[in-house]
Design brief:
The chain is mainly α. 58% of the residues lie in helices and 0% in strands. It folds into 2 domains: 88 residues, Endonuclease Iii, domain 2 (Orthogonal Bundle), CATH 1.10.1670.10; 104 residues, Endonuclease III, domain 1. The protein has 11 helices and no strands. Helix 7 crosses helix 8. 29% of the residues are buried. It binds a DNA duplex through helix 2, helix 3, helix 6, helix 8 and helix 9.
Length: 215
DNA sequence: ACCCAGGGTCATA
DNA sequence: TATGACCATGGG
């Protein structure tokens, strides 16, 4: 029986061999990463891109500017990303944390995670996206794709708690920031393949890794 | 017309 | 602790 570490590393190799380096997260600045992390909650990335583009036309992308913006105006700009009233509030909650604590980058990983989770609207996955892709901390992000993929392969229980799964994988891999960055990006890119969105996945080179819910 | 998307909060039992 | 309602747009 192969160890979890060996199986995960093999999975990484297969994905990397097919898709190559992804250079994530798609954003120009760390703050834009954080913004995207909130806006993409339960939302297709294409809609988030529209929202961010709208916002860039109205304002500089920094915490002070978005805090100064009337919430209604912010909400209207991010409308395409869905839940726009809710997300306008969440974005400003995050901005408030960033604006009145300029030393966040000096905090240890766990402290920083605690600060992020303290923001209403930032849950475990959004916090980990921010930790990994904005603050370059070694965190393995668990999202719906990751659960679906690992669940489908039969490596995890469907109902394992977020923290338990994250720590199980991090303990097994003991990877660095760059490795976790690439790994999560590959899982998402793989899940977005057209063939992985079909009920049956026959032409996928990695058919056994297809993450469509019904497979 | 339906389903889903790079989730999270809050009220209730 | 564990469900369920709610948030809302856009593409397939």
């Amino acid at each position: 029986m192969k160890s979890l570490k060996a199986r995960l590393e093999e999975l990484f190799e297969q994905l990397f061999a097919h898709y190559g380096a992804q250079n994530w997260w798609p954003a120009e600045t760390p703050f834009e990463v954080m913004l995207g992390a909130v806006l993409t909650q339960n939302t297709a990335w294409a809609n988030v891109e529209k929202a961010i583009l709208n916002l860039k036309k109205l304002s500089e992308l920094n915490p002070q500017a978005l805090l100064a913006m009337p919430r209604e105006l912010l909400a209207e700009a991010i409308r395409p990303s869905g839940y726009f009233n809710l997300k306008a509030e969440r974005v400003q909650n995050l901005c408030a944390l960033l604006a009145d604590n300029r030393e966040l980058h000096k905090l240890a990983d766990l402290e920083l995670r605690g600060q992020l989770l303290g923001v209403t609207g930032i849950g475990p996955e959004t916090a980990d996206d921010i930790l990994l892709y904005a603050f370059q901390r070694p965190v393995f992000v668990i999202d719906a794709y990751t659960r679906r993929l690992l669940g489908r392969i039969g490596w995890i229980d469907a109902d394992i708690a977020y923290e338990d799964l994250r720590q199980t994988i991090e303990q097994a891999l003991a990877g660095d920031t760059e490795y976790y960055n690439e790994f999560h990006a590959l899982i998402v890119i793989h899940a977005k393949r057209v063939c992985c969105k079909q009920p049956r996945c026959s032409d996928c080179h990695l058919s056994t890794l297809c993450s469509y819910p019904g497979n």
